[in-house]
Amino acid sequence: MKDVRVTHIGGPTALIEVSGWRILTDPTFDPPGRRYSFGWGTSSRKRTGPARRPEEIGPVDAILLSHDHHADNLDDRGRELLAEAPVVITTRAGARRLGGQVRGLRAWEETVLEGDDRPAITVTATPCRHGPALSRPIVGQVIGFALAWAGQQHGVLWITGDTVLYPGVRQVPRRMTVDTVLLHLGAVRFPISGGLHYSLTAADAVELCRLVRPRTIIPVHYEGWSHFSQGRQAVERAFAATPDGLGERLHWLPLSAP
């Protein structure tokens, strides 16, 4: 996608720079070593820290927060950054918890980022289900984000958010054309729930990308936490096995390097 730069900070955290905008996703900046509770008998230890500290990133214009209630998407240091951002966009439930001027969206609702001397960016919330069927009352609300602005030639920039493959997320390629996708992976699992997954497996990621057919696939949310059951190697194997060259669209960003 022309004139777009994505910097992977770690986990789901990325800095998106486009047309004068600086947009941060799911800020996680705590140091490694701590174990965090995720509720209902689940927890995870943070194994690696961010590739950049917040002060090394500088001011941002907006934060896109897929959900506020799991520390692998919003940890303590990341939470401090919310007050510094002019705009925070998250779920309806998250906006109620965070308060202030946080914008809350349901799936397929839109809001617009507007600024002087910059093109407006339309942010559309996309569906997520952060676990197996019927798990939403337990795992809570999550959304992804599709970004569209004047001058795009090949489609939107889509951030999937933490989701499994289910009918809701399959709606995305039916309703919009995707040029670049930030793909949340990790095949999240917890001992208490056995083999159930709470984010995309490598195989499901392949199936989703076959539906979406993006020109560029950027994996995120696959490293740095103990509850991620699949990392880069599993994803590379799954995409390499596709007969249609889908793996050639994978772009692994060095942590912190644009």
Describe this structure in words.
With 258 residues, this protein is α/β, with parallel strands linked by helices. It has a single domain (4-249), classed as Ribonuclease Z/Hydroxyacylglutathione hydrolase-like (Metallo-beta-lactamase, Chain A, 4-Layer Sandwich). It has helices at residues 54-57, 76-82, 92-98, 136-139, 167-170, 172-175, 202-212, 232-240; strands at 4-10, 13-18, 21-25, 35-39, 42-45, 62-64, 88-91, 103-105, 110-115, 118-127, 143-149, 156-159, 178-184, 216-220. Helix 7 (202-212) packs across helix 8.
Helices and strands, with pairings:
Blueprint: E1 4-10, E2 13-18, E3 21-25, E4 35-39, E5 42-45, H1 54-57, E6 62-64, H2 76-82, E7 88-91, H3 92-98, E8 103-105, E9 110-115, E10 118-127, H4 136-139, E11 143-149, E12 156-159, H5 167-170, H6 172-175, E13 178-184, H7 202-212, E14 216-220, H8 232-240
Parallel strand pairs: 3-6, 6-7, 7-8, 12-13, 13-14
Antiparallel strand pairs: 1-2, 2-3, 4-5, 9-10, 10-11, 11-12
